[in-house]
Please model this.
Amino acid sequence: MASGVKPRVKVPKTAAAGDKITIKTLISHKMESGQRKDKEGNIIPRSIINRFTCDFNGENVIDVTLEPAISTNPYLEFEAVVPEAGEFKFTWYDDDGSVYDEAKKIAIG
Amino acid sequence: MRKLTGAVLATLLATTGAIADPVDDTLIVNEEMELVVRTAAPEHISEALDEVMSGWLFRGTETRAMQADDFDNPGMIFAEQARDVWNTAEGTEGKSCASCHDDIESMSGVKGTYPKWNETAGEVRTLQMQMNDCRTNRMGADAWKYDKGDAINMEAALASVARGTLVNVAIDGPAQSTWEQGKDLYYTRTGQLELSCANCHEDNYGNMIRADHLSQGQINGFPVYRLKNTKLNGSHSRFKGCVRDTRAETYSPGSAEFVALELYVASRGNGLSVEGPSIRN
Model:
């Protein structure tokens, strides 16, 4: 398992109904591409986050496929419309099968 | 035609001048904490400068914005890693930093006062030297390498909790001789290019040195996350880079010379906010 993996998310605590908000996400991950070689000339096995999803109250907001060329600590920023109070769920999928979760509540106000 | 060229050239020069000046901007971190990035120069350098300015004012709009939000600041990733180390017991004594110092937030008054005279050791110590003293004498752990990995991360973590406090290093009393040594180094020309720190950072701040915008060389923002090498950089490593650029043999990070220089350069920023981990190019 990749070490030092830590997801971070920034979502406003409140929004007006129907508002478009900006969500920022970052996961610390080495994103080893699988193209590099170590000192002995052996290929360093690929180890990346290959998929990221965000759901709001069970409905999908964004579903991203990440490729090996994406650099260390992938940062994703996107917009979402908030129709009602609820919870954003964020999920990162690692090559090694690990799944990292994070959730943030948002209120209408 | 010649007249026209002259007019165009004059406009160009005027424009270049305007770009090169430090910007007029305020640094508000996370929309809540305003930091001092410009203030009256401390008395001991008032002959040389009227006003001291953080290097933040000399960077581009995007770089400045990146530092204004902890989420966008890549230096905070390293500071967060150090927070985990803070609570991890290491060495033969089974102690962590937290065993003696509790919560890292309680150390907010520390960063701005270093480098600082240590009475027991009879020397001026930087924060990293003090951390290693704790590690070897109190924890029974190995010393960290200067300006590397865990050491620079921990300095960044201690800087991050000290934001909002001001740089205020003592230059009198027992620290004075070290401070004088640092001052001598600051004004000593080195290398084939025969440049001292002052030639660029006192005489020419605000001007362009080829593509780079010269700042006052303040170190209130250290450790610095540099976009060019995507990691944290310590002030000693920066000194080394500067001295190297004058085409001289350099001192090493952690050397007595750089400790003295750090004390002197830090004292030139007395009154500015602790800003680290800051973002520079």
User: Anything to note?
Assistant: The mean pLDDT of chain A is 91. Chain A touches chain B at residues 4, 6, 8, 10, 24, 26, 28, 72-73 (CB under 8 Å). The longest strand of chain A covers residues 19-28. DSSP finds no helices and eight strands in chain A.
